[in-house]
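Record Lipoprotein, 298 aa.
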Amino acid sequence: MQKHSFIYRLFTLLLITTFLVSCGKKDEVEPSPEEKEFAAVQTTVDLINQLGGINAMAVDFSQQAGATNGKISKGRMAEIVNARIASIKETQCGNISFVPSESEDQMIIVIDFGNGVTCDGVSFKGKIEYTINLDFSGESFEYGGKLNFIGYEVDGNGLSGEYTFSAILKSLTETTALYEYTTKLVNGVITDKDGKKIQCNSEYLITLSAKYTTAGQISSSSVSATGAISGTDASGKAFSATVTKPLVSSSSCQYVVSGTYLIKSAAHSDATYDFGNGDCDNKATLTVNGISKTVTIE
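=>
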C-alpha cells in the first residue's frame, strides 16, 4: 500500500522508500533480464509514490480549509492552520510557519529545511511554499492554490515544476461534506545526484468524503483518486502510469489500501502496480511479464 500518513507524509515527498523484496545480488553478478525489467519499472514506481505524497500534502492542508464543515470565518482559518502547524512541529523536523499574506483570502504555509536537516536518516534541504487562495463569495465554498519548490531536495534528489490544485465543496450537511480536488503538475523535473533528469506531468481527480462531529470538527474521512502521470525518463524514453482502479485511503489507515496503476514505457514491458484489496499494510504488488514481486513501502 502507498504510505499516506496524515502527518509523516508531509516529509516524504521525494523520499524513495520502496524496495523489492527479493534475494540480494552481489554487484559483480550480471542482472538477469527479469531483474533488468523490474529495475526499469521501479523508476516509475518511485515517481508514483513521490507524486502520491505531494497530492496527499495538498489535500491534507487544504482539507483544513473545510475543517469546520464549510462554515468558517477568515480569522478562524488562521487559527485552524496554526493549530495544525503546532501539532506537526511536535512530531517532525523542519521549520513550519504560517506566513501572513497581503490578501485576506490567501494563506501561505512554508516548510523550511534550511541548508539541510536529517530526520530518521533522511536528508532534507530547501523549502516548500504552500499557497491557498480562498473564495468565500457565493453559495459554494471554493479554494485553490499552488506548491512552490525552492531549492527543495531529499537525499540529494531535487524537485521543480508548476504544481497547482483546486477544490470545491460539492455537498454539505450538518455531519458530512464531499470535496472534489483537481491536482496538476506541469513541467515537473526530478534531478538526481548525478544530474540525470526525469521530466513529467500529472493530473489527478481526488474525491474526499468527510464526517463531522456536532462541534463541526472532522471525525473521519475517506479518499478516492484517479489520474495519470506521463513524461520521459533519464534516457529520454517515454513512459506513462494510469490509474485503472481508484486509489482508496482513509483517515483510519496511513496507507493507500487499494487501487491499481498500469505502467507503460518504451524501456520495459507493460507493468501493473497494485496496492491491494483493502488491508491496512505497507505492501503492494508489482507485476511485469506475468511475474509478481512484493514492494514494501517504509
